[in-house]
């Protein structure tokens, strides 16, 4: 009985296991091997170069830029998207009707093509857009939105927040709906109403959703490519140069596939380490408050 | 018991590995009966794909032992990346178009493509297609021809002649001094207008240099090469003059280096680097843009003392390459197909009609096959006239790095006012020499 159950378990798990082996484990092992070679992706021959690629990456200005730019994006994006999606979720949850409709409406930007939305943003921020003409004519403000090393990352962070806020709001709405009514009733009896109720009841009860959304948002920052690629090309002065842009440039434009793979390996360790740190911080914070 | 489970897991892993390795497709070759089948990758552009599909159909009718599978090349994240991935996976076609000279240098450096001149019938093809002059500048540093150019856009500058006339100029400027004189008058009369709107001038994007620096440099240097193999052979005087012009334009507030929507068409700027792909966009969105009325097309302006009549420009040009991974039979069959296509100028006319991209022929502006069509489309005439005067991209394996350096060390800082042209040229030279080592 136990054995046939185990067999059945393996049988049902096998599609995912096989998929993971083909599309995850083999490529991962292959990529790790490539990171120690000087292969250019097309030559029949290549050499094993040891840790040379990693040393080169360590001293590379653009890799360093990608490292710091990611945390810069993180500092901008995570508070905006977590706060924004929470606010959105609270508003949607308090609607008397059409909750589903509004949830889907706010979710739509997530489905939009990154290239298309980047092109739209590019148009809105262009020198002769109605918005910029109005700023110049009304206030004498001539702002080079994508040419400023401060504004360009902020615009990309805001764009990403617009795209993902609806998606994360869905997770918060699910969390809000799972809070039992009797908890609120008990809080009301104890005199917790309005903001008090929100801070002392809703937020603690939402901790699992908050934890999930924050970790998802942090992880996302290590994989940004489309928006900076289309809007800024990583500029000005590497201010929006991300890990994925660096990997793409090295592997596919400069044909340094071995080196590009080494950067990808470093990127995966940095991502893993960063997410681990954020998880620990959130867990400690949650434990401190007894959540 | 546990052992059995481990063995099963190992078997599962082995089977999975076999499945994974079996996922690679193989380009089919001859069947051993004299027939040959090969894959042709067209550019990811519907009009080009239609053209090649049509050509393949006609060819297969005449040659029943040949089967050509035409399909668009993958273009995610770029067509170059698609080709590289296919080569890496062993799925490359026998032949593909959309190959630029710089990319071909990278492919040739890894022996991924084969020299064209080694195919039987190559000289005949060059003669039949009347492209001796055009293809001469395509020769690579190792004396091979790895690409057969299909089209060549001699990049031109468009000028808003209607605005020039308002400023008192009857024709577009030909020299740098004339350009600056136009700019001065423009700022006097229209302080909010610009001479040239080009956001890429302050960006390091490597391919952007083709449409600003190389257009001007090729004009100033009379087509002098920039890099030959692993050697930096640029003409310093012409390079510094080019950068000086950019500096002068920037200092006089004649350059708009911000992203702008249709600045030339709306009259916000009066000069624009332009390729023939723009005309279909204008026909749809700006029908008021009329050659000879609102705009004119010219070759790049040149410094004083350079012969404007024989000036050069940058050639935005791509061609066909044959891949080393294909069998000898497939390679020859692919070449024979190309030779058949280009042995008839009517095919080139069909290409021109479908794509608006000028075929890479020396006789495009004189051959009667094309003159009728060009008379109906005068905006293409200037492109046709200048095909022999257009210099293709540099053929270096490190084209990307070299052109990035031109941006980061020279063009970008000069336009931003951070470096003077002499210093920028010197820094750029040092950096390029490091890249070429």
From TrEMBL, chain A:
GO CC terms: plasma membrane
Localization (cell): Cell membrane
InterPro entries: ABC_transporter_permease, MetI-like, MetI-like_sf
PROSITE patterns found in the cross-reference section: ABC_TM1 (PS50928)
Domain of life: Bacteria
Topology within the bilayer: Multi-pass membrane protein
This protein's record includes keyword Aminoacyl-tRNA synthetase: no
Domain called ABC transmembrane type-1: residue spans: 67-278
Protein family membership: Belongs to the binding-protein-dependent transport system permease family.
Listed name of the protein: Sugar ABC transporter permease
Automatic annotation (TrEMBL), chain B:
Residues making up the signal peptide according to the UniProt record: 1-22
Keyword Ubl conjugation in record: no
Domain of life: Bacteria
Coiled coil: none
Keywords: Signal
The name this protein goes by in its record: Sugar ABC transporter substrate-binding protein
């Amino acid at each position: 009985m136990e054995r046939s159950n185990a067999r059945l378990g393996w049988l049902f798990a096998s599609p995912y296991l096989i998929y993971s082996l083909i599309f995850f484990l083999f490529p991962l092992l292959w990529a790790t091997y490539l990171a120690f070679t000087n292969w250019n992706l097309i030559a029949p021959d290549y050499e094993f170069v040891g840790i040379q690629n990693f040393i080169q990456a360590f001293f590379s200005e653009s890799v360093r830029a990608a490292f710091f730019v990611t945390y810069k994006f993180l500092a901008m994006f995570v508070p905006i998207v977590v706060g924004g999606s929470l606010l959105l979720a609270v508003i949607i949850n308090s609607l008397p009707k059409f909750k589903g409709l509004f949830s889907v409406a706010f979710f739509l930007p997530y489905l939009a093509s990154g290239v298309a939305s980047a092109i739209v943003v590019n148009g809105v921020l262009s020198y002769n857009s109605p918005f910029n003409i109005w700023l110049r004519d009304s206030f004498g403000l001539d702002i080079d939105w994508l040419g400023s090393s401060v504004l360009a990352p902020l615009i990309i962070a805001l764009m990403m927040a617009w795209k993902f806020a609806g998606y994360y709001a869905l997770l918060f709405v699910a969390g809000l709906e799972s809070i039992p009514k009797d908890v609120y009733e008990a809080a009301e009896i104890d005199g917790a109403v309005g903001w008090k109720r929100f801070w002392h009841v809703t937020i603690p009860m939402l901790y699992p959703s908050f934890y999930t959304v924050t970790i998802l948002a942090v992880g996302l920052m290590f994989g940004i490519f489309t928006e900076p690629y289309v809007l800024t090309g990583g500029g000005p002065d590497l201010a929006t140069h991300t890990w994925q842009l660096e990997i793409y440039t090295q592997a596919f434009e400069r044909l340094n596939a071995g080196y590009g793979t080494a950067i990808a390996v470093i990127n995966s360790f940095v991502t893993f380490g960063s997410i681990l740190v954020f998880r620990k911080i959130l867990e400690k914070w949650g434990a401190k408050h007894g959540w | 018991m546990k052992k059995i489970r481990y063995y099963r897991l190992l078997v599962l892993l082995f089977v999975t590995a076999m499945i994974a390795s079996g996922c690679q497709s193989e380009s089919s070759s001859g069947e051993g009966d004299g027939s040959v089948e090969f894959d042709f990758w067209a550019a990811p552009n519907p009009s080009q794909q239609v053209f090649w599909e049509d050509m393949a159909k006609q060819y297969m009718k005449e040659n029943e032992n040949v089967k050509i599978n035409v399909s668009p090349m993958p273009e995610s994240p770029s067509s170059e990346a698609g080709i590289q991935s296919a080569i890496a996976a062993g799925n490359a076609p026998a032949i593909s178009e959309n190959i630029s000279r710089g990319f071909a240098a990278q492919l040739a450096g890894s022996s991924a493509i084969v020299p064209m001149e080694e195919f039987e019938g190559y000289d005949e093809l060059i003669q039949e297609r009347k492209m001796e002059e055009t293809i001469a500048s395509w020769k690579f540093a190792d004396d091979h021809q790895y690409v057969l150019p299909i089209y060549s856009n001699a990049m031109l500058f468009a000028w808003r002649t209607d605005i020039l006339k308002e400023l008192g100029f009857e024709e577009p400027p030909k020299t740098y001094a004339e350009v600056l004189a136009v700019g001065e008058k423009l700022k006097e009369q229209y302080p909010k207008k610009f001479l040239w709107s080009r956001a890429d001038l302050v960006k390091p994007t490597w391919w952007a240099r083709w449409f600003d620096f190389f257009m001007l440099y090729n004009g100033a240097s009379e087509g002098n090469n920039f890099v030959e193999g692993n050697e930096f052979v640029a003409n310093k005087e012409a390079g510094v003059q080019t950068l000086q012009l950019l500096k002068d334009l920037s200092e006089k507030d004649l350059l708009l280096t911000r992203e702008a929507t249709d600045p030339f068409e709306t009259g916000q700027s009066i000069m624009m680097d332009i390729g023939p792909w723009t005309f279909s966009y204008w026909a749809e969105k700006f029908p008021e843009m009329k050659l000879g009325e609102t705009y004119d097309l010219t070759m790049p302006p040149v410094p004083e003392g350079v012969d404007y009549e024989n000036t050069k420009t940058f050639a935005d040009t791509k061609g066909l390459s044959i891949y080393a991974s294909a069998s000898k039979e497939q390679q020859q069959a692919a070449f024979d197909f190309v030779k058949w296509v280009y042995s008839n100028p009517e095919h080139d006319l069909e290409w021109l009609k479908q794509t608006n991209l000028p075929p890479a022929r020396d006789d495009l502006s004189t051959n009667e096959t094309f003159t009728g069509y060009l008379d109906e489309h005068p905006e293409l005439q200037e492109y046709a006239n200048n095909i022999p005067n257009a210099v293709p991209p540099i053929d270096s394996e490190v084209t990307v790095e070299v052109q990035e350096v031109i941006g980061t060390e020279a063009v970008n800082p000069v336009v931003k006012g951070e470096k003077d042209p002499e210093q920028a040229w010197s820094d750029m030279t040092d950096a390029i020499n490091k890249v070429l080592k």
